[in-house]
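Troubleshooting: if your tokenizer reports a length mismatch, compare your output against this known-good record of 417 residues.
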Amino acid sequence: MLHQTPGLIDEIRARFAHVDACPFQGPRIFFENAGGALTLNSVVETSAKFAAIPDNQGRDNIASHALVDIITKAKADLSVFMNASGGQFFVGESGTELLFRMIRTACVNAPEGRKVIGSSIEHPASRSAARRWAGIAGLDYVNVPHDDATGLVTAEDYAALMTPDVAVTTILHASPVTGMGMDVAAIARAIRAVAPDCYIIVDGIQHAAHGQMDIDSYGVDGYAISPYKVFSRHGYGIAWISDRLTALPHDQLIDAPATGWEFGTRDTGAYATMSDVIGYFDWLGGQVSDNADRGDRIRAAGRAIHAYETHLTNAMINGTGNLPGLRDMNHITILAGADNPAREGLVSITVGGIPSADVVTRLNQQGIRTHTRKADHYSGNVLTPLGLNDCIRISLCHYNTEHEVAQLLAALKDMKP
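Known-good structure output:
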């Protein structure tokens, strides 16, 4: 694990901006990573560098050729990072916008009267797109209910509602409310067993920072991430699409290349910062393994990140040092259960007798940054069935420490109405 290598956590933390202090608040612990992870210092430097370059891609000059080479390299890096041997990557406005575009394209090209299937655990990014474009395209939308107790939806849940006339399916890789990761490969297999030609589109936004991505193993057609949640910055999203989704008629300029999915001139700096992120995973993999292959190093980094974040969430739930864990605090309720192996770096709780917004405020006053999730259009699909109006989301990443977890437990232990 990362914390078992002397000095490694300190080396990791040194690579991130604002790791222990907010530029507005001062010293603080950052447990709001699901809302946007910390940014690599290299990403900050790269962003500034490219913001100053006036040239665009596609021109016959040295600068333009260099920009094209940087984009080409970033796409090759992404293929290794996400293990995608086919298809293509492209940049858009945000992960949400890219999910809408992929889902819209799949729906409007489906024969009228076919079906779209998605799950009630999904973030509204994919759920809203699927319901909206199913209605416009004359398709029936089918909802797969998730399990309220575990915060999960399974391959068996999808299989129970699958029929051969399903044309489009959406899957959430990890929930930003419960923190639970879904078995995308198993769900996709269950879908294809009944509707082999179905277009399958995955929301990987919450999952990307917490473990390996392995597109070749999933058997899907679209996968979207939001780089600001995986150590890059705001202002863009990244999508991978299969060759067959690429080839569908889609929004594009008249007479433009048929395989093009990007609109206008994209920011070369966005692509370059993803190379920074992937370079970081490569570096980290070299610290935790002796692999000579870059892809193997990146996968080793993903495994180490997942194992360490599981260690941190277990410390949060079961206690650390002489501090009781959340499960032993009578005034704390843990969403989706204390013992849930699907958890990915996130614990959501309620505190008896105190509105979640007040808990977040009290923690903020002690320099601990968390977030309130309300039963609104973002999280109501998860919270309302549990009879909750809100919860406190504590989301961490691999640069957090057990000492920070202990400070959180100390703050919550004596928190009373």
